[in-house]
C-alpha cells in the first residue's frame, strides 16, 4: 500500500512540474514576442469575419424596443490597431518605451463639463446671421441641428490639440477655433489617432482599411459625399510597397507615413528604420532608432520587418516617390481635389432619400443595431451645412436607430445628403461656445478630431 501512495505522489509531482515548465516557457515566448516589436501584424480586425446572422439585414433598423448593447464607442476599424474606446485588455499591451519616447497623451488642464439635461430653449441665433437652430423633442427622442449658410460660413475638420495623437473635448476645440458650431467627427483610437479617411488642408492625416462613407469639402465650399478607399504606395531605390497607413501606429512588417499633422516626432520604437524625406529626396536614415523628428516640409517613411528589408539598399540622396489617393468606391466624385475630407460612416441620406449603408460598410452590431446617441453631418438642397446630434441612453432621450436617425435628418432637418459620424459618448454639439445636448457619459468625452463651422 505504501508503494502505491509513493507512485501516486511521484505521478502528481511530475505532472505539476511539466505544467509549470510549460507555463514558464509560454511566458518566455510572450516576452520574446514583445521584445521583437511593439506592434502587431497588420491584420483585419477579428470582427470583420461576421457570422451569417450578422450578414443578414440590419436586424430591422426600425425596431422600437430598447436593446441592451455595449457602449457605442469607436469600432475597431483602423488598419493599424484594433480600434478605439475598446477594452484595452482585448489585445496585448505594447512594449514599454523609454520615458523620453513616450508621447504626451495628457489632456489640457481644462476640465470637461458635466452633462445637463437640455432645455427647450434654443441657443440665440438670428436669421440675419445665416444660422438656424432646429430641435426635435417627441416620442422619447431629443435631437438638435445647426444649419449654416454656406455663403457666410465654412466647415472643416480639425485635429484635437492641433496634432496626432491627442484628444480634447468638442467645447475645447470649438473655443480654440472660435467656432460658431462644432461637433465630434471621425472614429478615433484611444490615443487620438484618426480611424477614417481624413484630409486637412490637402494633406492626409487619417486612413482606414475599410470602404467607409466620407464627406469632401472643395475649395469653393461645395461638398461631395461617397464611400471611399485609401490607396498609398511609396517607391525607394526601385522598390515599391503599399503603405499601411498615414499618421498611425506602425504595424509589423509594414510601412507608415508620418507628416506634420502627427506632431514633431514619430513616437515609434527602435525596431525599424526611418527615412527622412525632404523635397522628394532621402535626407537622413535612422536604423534601429525610433521616435525621429518629422520635417515640416517633408515626411518620414517608417518601415518595419519585411518592409524594412525591402528598402534596405536605400541610401541618403535617393529619390522617393509617394503616391496616394482617396478614391470614390463608386467612381462618381473626385475626393483628391477636395481640400478637406472627413471619413466616418455609414451613409444615411443620398440625393434626398434615406440610404443607410451600415451592412455594406461592415460596421459592428453596436453601431448597426439598436438605439444610441448619434451624430451626423450633411447639407441641405441649397448646399448649406448641417451638423446634428441626437441624445441617447438617458431619461429625456432614448436615442434612435440609424434608420430613424436618417428619417430625422431628412424630414426634420432638411438634409439631402448626410453621413453618420462617431456616436455614443462622443456625441456632442456646441453652438456659440455652449453645449446644447447632454453627452451620455455624464460629461464631455475627449475626442480625436471635430468638425467646426467658422464665419468666413
What does this entry look like structurally?
The structure is a single chain. Among the domains are: 213 residues, no CATH class; 80 residues, no CATH class. Helix content is 13%, strand content 29%. A hairpin with a 2-residue loop joins strand 5 and strand 6.
Distance between the termini: 95 Å
Please give the order of strands in the largest beta sheet: 1-2-20-19-21-17-18
Rg computed from alpha carbons, rounded to a whole number of angstroms:
24 Å
Q: Write down how many β-strands occur, each being a DSSP E stretch of 2 or more residues.
A: 24
Alpha-beta classification? alpha+beta
Give the DSSP E fraction (strand runs of 2 or more residues). Answer: 25-35%
Topology as a string of helices (H) and strands (E): HEEEHEEEEEEEEEEEHEEEEHEEHEEEE
Helical stretch tally: 5
Q: Helical percent range?
A: 10-25%
The averaged pLDDT comes out at: 81
Shape: elongated
The stretches of 5 or more residues where confidence is low (pLDDT under 50) are: 1-109
Biggest sheet descriptor: 7 strands, antiparallel
